[in-house]
């Protein structure tokens, strides 16, 4: 009898949750489209230009953003990403421009795809489109502090690294890679203080802030692809420190990068420790990226972590509004938090971005 009652309550709760979620996220679908036009107008008046966004078609956003969509030999679509120092071929994210929404589908116009096959022609198109490098000023909706605007206009290309342990002739190296909405402090304020002297005398410990997080650069012209993350880890940790072999300890998003690093350096990785890896086996016939997107962000109001993930993943302009209210004024929130908690030390919970 008790099991039957619990089953009825669970079923009823699921129905209520699904109904409320449908209504709430339908409102957000409309709100995000409205905010898209609001931000376009404000960007135009404040910054004198329309800003491309990911709810546009990829072709329009990419070309407006100074990049060219290409397709080579029938392979998957890629884009040429233009930076101040290099021309870089990157894969388009499977979810970046593909977040299904009935409202978005009705409101947007479809664009014919452009296929470019000649590499030399691609470079000519890029040069014609860009006409040289343009310096990026801080956007009106972004925080202008040194940390948040780190290296956005410079040519520096190294990550922030917190290093402890043996400084030279280390027999063992360990690279710690944090997850999403985190930083190197995830490790340095939890694990590092508990390592013994014998450990630190033998190992070199590297805790990095990934590209776009913590005190690492947040370049405006980056797509934050796996390749870009790996390139930055190589330039910052492996090459300058002459790391020939290493252990990897990674959490959440960092697990994807840890696996990619292990695939690239199979003979150098001595061990691989993955904490809470975002692994979702894809059923046959499903699109992997979209299936994972629905698992990570199921568009449900309950539990709250699912609601937060859905807000961040599905709604670009609602998220921008939240960042405008919270992230832009993070120094005020940090001050109030420390004042209320009487804690003068800023923990990794406050040093996420």
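^ Assign residues to that structure.
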């Amino acid at each position: 009898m008790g099991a039957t009652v619990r089953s009825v309550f669970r079923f009823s709760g699921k129905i209520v949750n699904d109904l409320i979620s449908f209504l709430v996220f339908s409102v957000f679908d409309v709100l995000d489209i409205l905010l898209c036009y609001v931000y376009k107008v404000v960007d135009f008046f404040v910054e004198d230009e329309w800003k491309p966004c990911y709810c546009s078609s990829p072709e329009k956003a990419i070309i407006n953003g100074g990049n060219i969509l290409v397709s080579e030999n029938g392979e998957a679509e890629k884009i040429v990403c233009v930076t101040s120092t290099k021309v870089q071929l990157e894969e388009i994210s499977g979810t970046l421009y593909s977040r299904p929404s009935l409202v978005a589908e009705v409101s947007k116009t479809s664009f014919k795809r452009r296929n470019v096959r000649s590499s030399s022609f691609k470079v000519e198109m890029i040069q014609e489109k860009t006409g040289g490098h343009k310096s990026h000023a801080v956007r009106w909706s972004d925080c202008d502090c040194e940390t948040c605007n780190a290296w956005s206009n410079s040519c520096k290309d190294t990550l922030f690294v917190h290093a402890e342990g043996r400084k030279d002739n280390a027999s063992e190296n360990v690279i710690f890679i944090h997850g999403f909405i985190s930083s190197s402090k995830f490790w340095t304020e939890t694990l590092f203080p508990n390592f013994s002297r014998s450990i630190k005398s033998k190992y070199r410990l590297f805790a990095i802030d990934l590209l776009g997080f913590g005190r690492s650069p947040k370049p405006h012209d980056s797509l934050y692809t796996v390749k870009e993350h790996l390139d930055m880890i190589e330039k910052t940790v492996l090459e300058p420190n002459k790391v020939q072999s290493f252990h990897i300890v990674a959490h959440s998003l960092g697990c994807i990068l840890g696996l990619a690093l292990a695939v690239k350096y199979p003979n150098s990785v001595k061990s691989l420790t993955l904490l809470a890896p975002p692994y979702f086996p894809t059923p046959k016939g499903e699109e992997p990226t979209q299936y994972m997107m629905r698992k990570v962000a199921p568009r449900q109001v309950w539990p709250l972590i699912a609601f937060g993930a859905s807000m961040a993943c599905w709604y670009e302009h609602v998220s921008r509004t939240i960042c405008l209210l919270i992230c832009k004024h993070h120094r005020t929130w940090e001050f109030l938090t420390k004042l209320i908690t009487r804690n003068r030390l800023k923990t990794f919970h406050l040093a996420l971005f």
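The chain has a mean pLDDT of 77.
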